[in-house]
Amino acid sequence: MATSTTPPQLDSGRQRDPERAVRRVGFSQTLGRWDVKVSPYLYISPFFLLFALTGLFPLVYTAYVSVHDWNLIGGKGAFVGFENYLFVVQEPNFWKSLRNTFSIFFLSTVPQLIIAIVLAALLDANLRARTFWRMGVLLPYVVAPVAVSLIFGKLFADKSGLINTVLGYVGIDPIGWHAQILPSHIAIATMVDFRWTGYNTLILLAAMQAIPKDLYEAAVLDGATRVRQFFSVTVPMLRPTIIFVVITSTIGGLQIFDEPRLFDQTGQGGPSRQWMTATMYIYELGWGNQKSFGRASAVAWILFLIIVIIGLINFSITRKISSDSSTTKRKKVSR
Amino acid sequence: MRKTTSKMWAAAAGVTGIALLATACSGNAETPSDEGSDAGSENITLTLGTFNEPGYTDEMFAEYEAANPGITIENKKAATSNEARDNLNTRLASGSGASDIEMIEIDWLPELMQYPEKFTDLTDPALDGRWLDWKVAQATTPDGVLLGYGTDIGPEAIAFRGDLLAAAGLPSTREEVAAALGGADATWDDYFAFGKQYTEATGKPFFDAAGAIYQGMINQVENAYEDNDGTIIAATNPEVKDIYDSVTTASVTDNLSAHLGQWSDDWTASFQTDGFATMLAPGWMLGVIEGNSAGVTGWDIADVFPGGAGNWGGSFLTVPAQSKHAEEAKKLAAWLTAPEQQIAAYKSKGTFPSQVEALASDELLSSVNPFFNDAPAGQILANRAVGIVAPFKGPNYFAVNDAMQSALTEVDVNGGDAAAQWDTFVSAVNALG
Prior knowledge:
heterodimer; A: mainly alpha; B: alpha+beta; 8-stranded mixed beta sheet; 19 helices; 8 strands
């Protein structure tokens, strides 16, 4: 308050007698003013500095690279505008990579979520050696993705693989896990699920344990079976957590790289790019035969925009669901 | 008020602490490498980047370290050639982190030779005549700068399962197989005709993969994919199309192929299940066959190769320009590629030397390979090395060959249509230009 009245006084004083020294404001007072005006920004600055360094700068620099002819080893070339974008959009492999990414994403996320919820419900029950089982589901998560891919690569081998042998016993013809599009996606989705289901199970389990027990008591009094309790109490109460899990697996799913890259010996996503994902395509453009960082950056930016769009869709669905859940709650209360 | 300020100060202190920690970490990470390079002439650590099994042993390194006090050799091994290529590309792009000596395979050497400034000039008059002429030519830029010292070459012979051929009632000893394939005038038609006899008699595949046979055939064409000036001619070169047609006919129509992708899990497993009777065997492949065929007997090598002599693979040692000890690294690379060391490497891992003197040495010529039915492998491969014509491999060789191998895998392994895959190959090649 005092500070706001000071400037006019100063001004008037100066006009009256220019010789007279400007009234000195104590340094501690200046410091105090800075404290009020500057320090809040200072406090929040570490996040923004780190974000600028690790998030914003790469993003902007990638955009800068994407409008240049840029060789991996040769470095920056001429400015080409949107030529790189035009090139990749006309490449059939680009569209294949998008198709594969989304296909693998859906094939892995949907079963993963269902299995994770069921497993979490089982682990939530009053089990003997509870910690053992809970640690057990997390075990696959500890295994390095590369190791998972190597093992599953052998299991899913087209001719010598265990899975085709077992399928042969029940009279199913061998499936071309490395030859056809859909089977290869299923095989890769299996690897992803093997690794991530346990992780999501534990997140859902934590959420389940936060559900008030009196809801279950009420349900039991109403005569609900365990299955009914699961669908009418557990699943609705898990909604926010399920949304969180869906968002994290969306981000992970659209960036999937290790598993498909190590699915065969060449790491190119199959001879006809049956399982080449978007990130593998970026790698192939930048570090593969073309060595074109410009084109790789263009794809990276397109992928970024796609993820932003999906993020927005996610956001709107989330808002819809959360408002839905509040109305159902209200309904329940009124009932 | 006071309470919140003190909390804020605490938070600020915490954040600053974390920020300091973060910067401290990144600072630390960079220091050791700087110190290591500034350590001076007293103690030098030379890093040697290799892949697969070059055959350089710890004993060799110990010997060199003893003869050159103050030098320590650290060998960084990559599993595959592709992995080494990715790694080196990334290091060259970032300008640091490459080993003092990097091993480079012939197939991807040309694409790096477009950037001679990234490598140290290894020209040394004292080493003139150490290697076969075509080997030196492969690593020499148009301006006459030598970028790499040759290690091994891959003269090709035919490896076969004597027991499987005998069971089919066909010639099955080294000499008989060589004669059956046409001896010194063996052609690919002879090879495929012999294969038909085997497949008709047994119903089993004759060779492992279409891609492998193609590799053997294309390595005998001087300008397969590119003219000497670098123009890509792959899509219009009738020789390429002819080879593609005859390989796909032999593999699919005549069903001689085991329909395995080379290096795939199925391919590795098939060594244990008598999956095929013959395969093309460059020197370095003998070690691979032996490794995959543990417990399997009957492998042998015939001193014959269809279509004349052929070379498959082989590597070079280079010194990236970013090396801080280029002089010492050059010295070590020269020592490692000297005939004595390469003969020792051959004995250790079967990598066939590219040095003129080594090729004539008794030690090499008298060597036998017990796994291959005591075949005189040294003599056979030395015979196979005579008359090799090194094909021209330009900057786009690797990319074109990659597209071709994808097409062949699709046809041979996945049952794709040969004509459609040829079109795919052509459009992939056109995308490069």
